[in-house]
Amino acid sequence: MSTLLEKHIVELLQERNDKAISLLYEHYGDTLYGVAHKVVRDEEMAQDVVQESFVKIWKKADSYDASKAKLFTWLFRITRNTAIDKLRSVNTKNDKEIQMDVSDVYNLGVHSIRPDLMDVRENLDKIESKYQIVLDALFFQGMTQQEASDELDIPLGTIKSRLKIGLRELKKLYGTSLALIIVVFSTF
Amino acid sequence: MKEKIRLFLETDLLESYLLGNTTTEETLQVERYIAMYPEVRETYNELQSNLEAYAKMHAIKAPEGLKARILQKIKAQDAGRRKFRRFAIAASISAVMFAASAYFFYNQNLNLHQENAIVNTKIQNLEADMKQQLEDVRNQFIVLNNPQTRKVSIKGNKKAKDLKALAYINPVKKLSYINVQNLPQLPENQCYQMWAEVNGEMLNLGVIESADDKEKLRALPYAEDAVSYITIEPQGGNLTPTVQNIVANISY
To answer: What is the interface pTM, i.e. ipTM, of the complex?
Structure first.
């Protein structure tokens, strides 16, 4: 994502121009919806999460500090935390019916993704699921490597090496897509 | 130093910070490390890029209408806030106006109270004054109208030949008045002053203004064998009469 666009969006946000929300949604809406869905695993709930997150983003615009985090990092934090809170509130409501452990909030792995969602995830398939599991633990579940090792019952050393390979694969993928964008742009 | 950074990176604190899962204390620590050590900063930036890239891989086409709903929600929020702000502004303006008018009326009330007190004293003084004057006039009438009243014509000695005055003395009512009709002009630094010797005591009856009304009657203290004097004194009057400057005397 171009930093110029980020800068523009941040400026609009801080001027309290609601065009900022439009632009944010256009550029990050699908990703944040995906993030929300990844956590709550329910389409309707994910929509609520995205809506609540955007309201929070709009309200908290003043608190965004570009020197401390990239715009996306900030958006991701808000969305992920909103999703976790949502899931917790739903779980407390259902607590009496189904005893759910908080650590069970996230179902590890990607097996529950519906096939119709898969088309936009072409790239994701290029990362082997054993690496995805570790990346998920890091970026979505917010686990330390030790926690991931305990949770997944995989030795810490293996976690470390899988994470390293996973990140390398990831870089390869977004490296090529970035190269592709450059190629596409330079042809115009 | 290198060891310190390596240990820090091993704690996974940076990853927790990335997701916003650190406590306030941890946040401060991580931010300090990011600011101080380029290696930590680099790792953090790389983590941010990785996060964005990995999250984007999970993008799902959001349902139609979600954007519209979000924008509507935000507009409603803003309208609410704006409405509240407008209300708050109106409320503070009216509060200020109320305070100002309260202060104004309080002040006005205070002023009116003071004015009222002043007017009351004035009326009382006026009343007392009028009573005094009425009493005076009544006494004058009694004296002038009484057959026992003696009328004594007074002329000035050679120091004030043109001085002319009339004294009315009533021994029965024990009242006496003097009417100064003419006073010779004096230099500016001098004036005429009246005195009365009553029972061996010299009383100051005050300075006679030359501009005095010619019809004005001055009350004289009455006593058997009293003597009144008119003297020339320095401007403003004297405490004791200057005997050599006596211009007229009246004994009654």
So the answer is: 0.80
The amino acid at residue A100 is M
Q: A55 and A40: one domain? A: yes
Mean pLDDT of the B225-245 span: 83
Tell me which of A62, A79, A105 is where a domain ends.
A105
Lowest mean pLDDT across A25-39, A90-104, B81-95:
A90-104
Fold of B150-251: Immunoglobulin-like (2.60.40)
- Using CA atoms, how far apart are residues A113 and B195, in angstroms rounded to an integer? 127
Final residue belonging to a domain, choices A52, A74, A105: A105
Residues of A in contact with B75 (CB under 8 A): 18
Q: Which of B56, B71, B75 to mutate to test the interface with A (most CBs of A within 10 A)?
A: B56
Retrieve residue B149's tokens.
Answer: 């009243």
Per DSSP (E only), the strands in chain B are 150-155, 164-170, 175-182, 190-198, 201-208, 218-220, 227-234, 246-251
Task: Determine the straight-line distance between the first and last CA of chain A, rounded to whole angstroms.
Answer: 19
Smallest CA–CA distance from B77 into chain A, residue: A55
Task: Check pLDDT > 80 for residue B78.
Answer: no
Please write the tens of the pLDDT for every residue from A110-122. 444 444 444 456 6
Q: How many CB pairs under 8 A join A and B?
A: 124
Nearest-neighbour CA in chain B from A48: distance (Å): 9
- Residue A54 touches partner B, C-beta closer than 8 Å: yes
Predicted pLDDT at A104 = 46
Say yes or no for a CB contact (<8 Å) between B52 and A73. yes
